[in-house]
Q: What sequence folds into this?
């Protein structure tokens, strides 16, 4: 369901992507003032030093309110090595699934499969459910209560939930939870009609049953995927099978040697990717349905250091392709100048460090 006055799905990106860029910075409270809008931050879970930072902002001109969830962080500046480890390994790369209770079907599982999400995503969702407003001078409202009360006090305002990378992953999870809350607790189809979901470079959040349940709750969703970006294809088996063929002819995972097997044979990066894919296949992760995907056909970035045929260059290319700036340039969306935002070079270093773990 959706309101006739809502901003069309295809027109949300110019609003949501710059807000994601603000979330990636080390001073979102100040940097949001650099956006055209005007945008006003009205709820936040804490300081920007928290790697799991998320906030709510409103745009009275557009009658738009946005919940934006920060993506993966880097090990630099206000973020510690531990932050980077938790963010990438525990949340991004978790290979454990946990049961998803906020389903529209109750215990009537489709094909007998219970809906599940990544364990790391559930950890972050739990933080979001319990988070209270830390804005100075504001009531310490729980996020879901705040969003619902805002919708009641401001009829006609559209709520868009969005994020980049891990933030997009979590946006899908929180959207499913929030719609369940609106349906079963608040019994508010009016508030449900105002919800939209817009993500960028988001990996799969859960299994087939979870994805189908989200689809049953919400048709107003759009997910942007750079076809040269590794992250949005993770951790589905078909997605990782696609990833192994990226960047041909260079840097090509099929010709990059990363080690030797016990018999002295060469192990290529493509084989290592498929070994990981095989480990994750049983979890049955699923991307959003094709009708909600918006592929962006971005070419290999021809830059020294990330086009050579070696593992570091492959990982550097993957890191560069994942950046908000690459998505923004392809979509022709201007971003404000923010010196403290995560840069492509930092992302390259982060990707290398994370995979080395």
A:
């Amino acid at each position: 369901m959706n309101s006739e006055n809502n901003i069309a799905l295809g027109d949300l990106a110019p609003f949501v992507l710059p807000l994601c860029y603000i979330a990636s910075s080390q001073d979102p409270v100040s940097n949001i003032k650099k956006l055209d809008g005007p945008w006003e931050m009205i709820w936040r879970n804490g300081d920007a030093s928290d790697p799991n930072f998320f906030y709510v902002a409103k745009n009275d001109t557009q009658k738009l309110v946005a919940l934006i969830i920060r993506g993966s962080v880097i090990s630099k500046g206000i973020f510690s090595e531990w932050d980077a480890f938790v963010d990438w390994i525990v949340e991004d790369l978790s290979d454990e699934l946990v049961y998803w209770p906020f389903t529209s079907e109750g215990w009537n599982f489709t094909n007998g499969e219970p809906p599940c999400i990544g364990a790391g995503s559930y950890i972050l969702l739990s933080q979001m459910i319990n988070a209270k407003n830390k804005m100075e001078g504001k009531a310490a409202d729980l996020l879901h209560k705040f969003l619902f009360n805002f919708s009641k006090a401001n009829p006609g305002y559209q709520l868009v939930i969005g994020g980049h990378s891990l933030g997009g992953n979590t946006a899908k999870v929180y959207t499913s939870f929030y719609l369940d809350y609106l349906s079963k607790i608040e019994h508010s189809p009016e508030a449900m009609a105002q919800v939209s979901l817009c993500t960028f470079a988001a990996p799969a959040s859960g299994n087939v049953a979870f994805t189908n349940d989200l689809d049953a709750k919400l048709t107003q969703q759009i997910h942007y995927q750079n076809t040269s970006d590794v992250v949005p294809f993770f951790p589905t088996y078909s997605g990782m099978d696609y990833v192994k063929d990226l960047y041909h002819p260079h840097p090509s995972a099929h010709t990059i040697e990363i080690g030797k097997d016990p018999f002295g044979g060469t192990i290529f990066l493509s084989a290592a990717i498929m070994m990981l894919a095989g480990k994750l296949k049983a979890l049955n992760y699923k991307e959003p349905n094709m009708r909600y995907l918006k592929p962006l056909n971005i070419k290999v970035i021809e830059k020294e250091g990330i086009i050579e045929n070696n593992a570091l260059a492959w990982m550097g290319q993957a890191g560069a392709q994942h950046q908000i700036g690459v998505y923004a340039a392809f979509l022709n969306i201007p971003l404000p100048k923010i010196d403290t935002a995560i840069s492509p070079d930092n992302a390259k270093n982060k990707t290398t460090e994370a995979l080395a773990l």
Summary: The chain has 13 helices and 13 strands. Residues 129 and 317 are 36 Å apart (CA to CA). Residues 166-184 form the longest helix (19 residues).
